[in-house]
Write a structure and sequence with these properties.
Blueprint: H1 6-11, H2 13-27, H3 36-60, E1 68-71, E2 74-78, E3 83-89, E4 92-98, E5 101-103, H4 112-117, H5 126-136, H6 141-150, H7 158-185, E6 195-206, H8 208-223, E7 236-248, E8 255-264, H9 271-287, E9 292-297, H10 301-306, E10 316-319, H11 321-336, H12 341-356, H13 360-374, H14 381-396, H15 403-408, H16 416-430, H17 441-452, H18 456-465, E11 472-473, H19 477-489
Parallel strand pairs: 6-9, 9-10
Antiparallel strand pairs: 1-2, 1-11, 2-5, 3-4, 6-7, 7-8
């Protein structure tokens, strides 16, 4: 860096330590070099210190020494004394003294250095913010902090790692629609693609709001003298997951070329998630209107309410064959008994018919209706109700279960992509031992969605830019008027 004269560089504490370490190392005989790992560690520690000193010096150049500045059209005046601050970087702490400015008319002080350098959360350099965000997408805050320690870096604390995705998420949500549109505009669809497949599902995760609600319900029941356990997993709420994939024909069936994955915190009717899927689909079909549209999900009524309306009129709607097989297995268990050999054999027979035979779902429904009539009177009411429920399931989903035809047309019949998204996007990160989530889960879901959609690399520059802001130094009153006029025009 041109800012550093060689004499200034040589006088840095860390540089003196570095030369001392190398001189001592060179003086040791080859027969007594000792542990190379220890040398690596010592050298790394000194190099981190040197990088911190150089980084701190360069960061200080982003400060402003003017008496008056203008930020986003508002005038700020310099606070008399410089304030001390320890920033965190990718190589360690950066102790600095920087100027603060107070808004005219009163209010919260701002730091021009933070705004010009893009400091995140008031303490974290952009590169460290990216690193912590990336790691938090893969592991908890404790593990993230331990990674820096393992690399010999005096890195962010566990609580700081925990806060950062929330800060990033708040910024992302503020600009989400425009940024997601920009990401889509930077992508292309393979020429061999023939299908666009949209899937929607959800997974239950431990949730603090859900736990509070479950506790309130238990206390209300207790006051009424009821000893009733809540149905379903108490303290859990559904995280919505959605995927948009493009497929091309393959020798062994349709081949998935690319997938965009979305995950959203619990929300009524999965409103934001479905908006994201619709925007993604509109962009794909806008670029490739020739693609055949497929809606693929399990049989949950909430999912299929989304697949209604004008854009889905010409879509092929398919219920996941795996879920259909599970319901068929349950029906056979209800009639024949859970461990019945005959029941398992009948299940296998009907499963093949359902999947590979034209009109197979009609034969399954006919068989279930016949079994309902033949159900012995001695069979429990629970098993009767289970068989009736499964027969109703196939009746309701009949028009989405022509699997033989779908396969002939080269369409996918399994929703494994969105189920994998539920597992890898949400469950693997949000359901670790002892976890319970409040408002912080959306930050993690956003990061993981970008990572698993191969968008993190292009998304980060947009996210980082939100923490940078232009700072205008005011020279005199006329200059202030000119700045204000330019900002109003912009």
């Amino acid at each position: 860096m041109q800012e550093y004269h060689s004499k200034e560089l040589f006088s840095l504490t860390s540089f003196v330590k570095l030369t001392g370490l190398l001189e001592r190392r060179a003086a040791r005989p080859v027969s007594d070099l000792g542990s190379f790992e220890a040398f690596e560690r010592d050298l790394g520690e000194v190099m981190h210190q040197l990088q911190c000193e150089l980084t701190a010096a360069e960061l200080s150049r982003y400060d402003v020494d003017a008496q008056v500045i203008v930020v986003e059209g508002r005038e700020y005046r310099k606070v008399l004394d410089k304030q001390s601050k320890v920033y965190r970087s990718s190589t360690g702490p950066l102790p600095l003294r920087r100027n603060l400015f107070k808004p005219k008319g009163g209010g919260k002080c701002i730091c021009p250095l933070d705004l010009r350098a893009g400091i995140v959360g008031g303490w974290c350099t952009p590169l460290l913010a990216r690193q912590v965000g990336f790691l938090m997408g893969h592991m908890p805050s404790k593990s993230t902090a331990e990674v820096f320690g393992e690399f010999g870096i005096d890195g962010p604390s566990v609580s700081s790692c925990d806060r950062l995705p929330k800060i990033l998420s708040a910024s992302w949500e503020k600009h989400r629609e425009s940024w997601e549109e920009a990401l889509r505009c930077g992508e292309s669809i393979a020429g061999e693609a023939t299908l666009a497949v949209v899937s929607l599902d959800g997974v239950m995760v431990p949730d603090k709001d859900g736990q509070r609600k479950a506790k309130a319900e238990r206390e209300a029941a207790k006051k009424k003298g009821l000893d009733k356990k809540p149905t379903g997993p108490a303290g859990y709420r559904e995280v919505g997951c959605g995927t948009v994939s493009v497929y091309a024909p393959g020798e062994k069936g349709p081949q998935r070329l690319d997938t965009v994955r979305y995950g959203r915190a619990p929300e009524k009717k999965k409103k934001t998630l479905t908006e994201q899927l619709s925007a993604e689909l509109d962009a794909i079909l806008g670029a490739r209107p020739d693609l055949k549209l497929v809606a693929l999900a399990d049989g949950a009524e909430e999912n299929w309410r989304y697949f209604e309306g004008y854009r889905w009129d010409k879509a092929t709607k398919i219920v996941d064959s795996g879920h259909a097989s599970e319901h068929l297995r349950n029906a056979m268990s209800a009639f024949y008994g859970k461990d019945s050999i005959r029941g398992r054999a009948e299940y296998e027979r009907l499963r093949v018919i359902l999947k590979d035979q034209r009109g197979g779902v009609d034969e399954v429904i006919t068989t279930l209706c016949r079994l309902e009539r033949k159900m012995p009177k001695k069979v429990s009411k629970t098993r009767r109700e289970e068989l009736r429920k499964e027969r109703k399931y196939f009746t309701n989903q009949r028009d989405r279960m022509d699997y033989a035809q779908y396969q002939e047309l080269g369409l996918p019949i399994g929703s494994g992509v969105v189920e994998a998204a539920c597992k890898t996007l949400a469950s693997q990160r949000l359901k670790l031992s002892g976890m319970s989530w409040g408002g912080g889960k959306q930050g993690i879901l956003t990061i993981r969605s970008l990572q698993q959609s191969n968008r993190w690399e292009r998304a980060w520059p947009m996210l980082a830019s939100a923490f940078r802001c232009e700072v205008y130094q005011v020279q005199d009153h006329k200059h202030l008027q000119a700045i204000s006029s330019c900002e109003r025009v912009a």
